[in-house]
Structures are given as structure tokens and as C-alpha cells.
Design goal:
Layout (H helix, E strand, L loop, with lengths): L2 E5 L2 H11 L3 E5 L12 E6 L8 H13 L1 E12 L10 E4 L2 E5 L2 E4 L3 H8 L4 E8 L3 E8 L2
Parallel strand pairs: 1-2, 3-4
Antiparallel strand pairs: 4-9, 5-6, 6-7, 8-9
């Protein structure tokens, strides 16, 4: 398996290099600056990140990931949902988006918002999971 990643933290990249050497390619930067290469991938996994982006950034990330999938490739996202205890707390800065403290702006998904954002990208599964907070596991397949 060939693995590539995107990481904004230089410290995290250094730790990955320490543990995995050159077995993993890690691009330094934000997912909002994708794509970092022209490669096509059989699978893309985005863990607990998409809900930190605003609407425009989320749309771009989903489209960019989909564009980099091979035919029959999968994208898997996890995203916090409205069952989280902190939903509705802090300053409302947009529909279902709250700033709980300075810089922490979180969009809380429900099934309808998952469908709205992902249905054009081969959405076929939405599963509730608990990853220290209520999340959705969102799976799409490129046709």
C-alpha cells in the first residue's frame, strides 16, 4: 500500500518521518490548498477534519477528494454531528456552525446536511459512530 497524507503541523510531519521514514509521503499544508499532486487514489480517508471548515471549504475539499479518486475509489470521512454535547454552545456564526472558543469553529452535521454535501459524490453509507464524541462515518464511491 502506498500512503500519502496532508498535514498542516510541521511537528506532526517530523513525528511521522521519525516513525515511518520515507514509507509515507506527507504534504505540508492545508487541505484547502488541494490538490498537492496529480495522482489518483483508490481511497481517501479524512478523519475529524471536515467539520472544522466553512461551507465553501467543505465543498472544495469534497470535490478535490472526489477528483483524485480512481474509478470505483472510495472516500471516507468522519464528521461531528448534532448529538455532540457541545452542539449549540458558543457563538452561532452560521447555520449549525458555532465558535465554541476563539478559533474553534465547528459545523455540526445531521443526516440531511450529509446528504446535501455528499450525494453528488457517490454517497452510499452514513453510519453513526462514537469517537469520543458522536460522529458520522460517511462513505462515498466514485462510479
Amino acid at each position: 500500500m502506498t500512503v500519502s497524507g496532508i498535514e498542516i503541523s510541521k511537528t506532526a510531519i517530523q513525528l511521522a518521518k521519525k516513525h515511518y521514514g520515507n514509507e509515507v509521503t506527507i504534504f505540508h499544508g492545508s487541505v484547502t490548498k488541494m490538490p498537492f499532486d496529480g495522482n489518483k487514489y483508490d481511497g481517501i480517508f479524512c478523519y475529524a477534519l471536515i467539520h472544522l471548515l466553512d461551507s465553501k471549504e467543505r465543498k472544495k475539499l469534497i470535490q478535490d477528494c472526489y477528483n483524485q479518486l480512481t474509478e470505483n475509489g472510495f472516500m471516507v470521512f468522519t464528521a461531528i454531528n448534532k448529538n455532540a454535547s457541545q452542539f449549540g454552545q458558543g457563538e452561532l456564526i452560521g447555520k449549525d456552525r458555532y465558535e465554541t472558543h476563539k478559533g474553534a469553529r465547528i459545523f455540526y452535521y445531521d443526516r440531511e446536511s450529509v446528504k446535501t454535501e455528499f450525494e453528488k459524490f457517490g454517497l452510499f453509507e452514513i453510519t453513526e459512530v462514537d469517537e469520543n464524541q458522536p460522529m458520522y462515518l460517511i462513505i462515498c464511491k466514485k462510479k
